[in-house]
Specification:
mainly beta; 1 helix; 43% strand; globular; disordered N terminus
């Protein structure tokens, strides 16, 4: 019994912990297919937030060292459709604050094409 427990604990300790995943998104814009990568999560040494900047048309990332305090929000907006208050953050090289996209599952519409039927496949993990 102790041997079985030891083997399970060893396997858990040896297995890599996925901290971040890059996804390959495939979306339709009329007859045109659009493909791009987007990252969610941080690494062993850093944490990261993801947002989409509609002005530049690109995903942007806010990173900070793991163990440090997370960046404070730069403002808040009230979403009239859900009644929720959404925090906004200042992302590098973006003039205006943006809301965080917490995960690929939270992204219900492709921000580049407006396609609600986009596909996202895990491309690689990083730590």
């Amino acid at each position: 019994m102790f041997r079985s427990i030891a083997i399970v604990l060893l396997a858990l300790a040896a297995s890599p912990a996925l901290a971040g995943i890059e996804f390959r998104v495939t979306s339709k814009d009329g007859d045109r297919t659009v493909k791009y990568g987007v990252k969610f999560g941080g690494g062993r040494l850093f944490e990261q937030r993801t947002a989409f900047d509609p002005v530049s048309g690109r995903f942007v990332y806010l990173k900070w060292n793991r163990g440090e305090a997370a960046p404070k929000s730069a403002g808040k907006i009230w979403d009239h459709q859900t009644g929720r208050t959404i925090n906004l953050y200042k992302f590098p090289k973006v003039d205006h604050p943006l809301p965080v996209i917490p995960s690929i599952d939270a992204m219900k519409v492709c921000p580049k094409t407006g396609d609600p039927n986009f596909e996202a496949k895990a491309l690689l993990s990083f730590d």
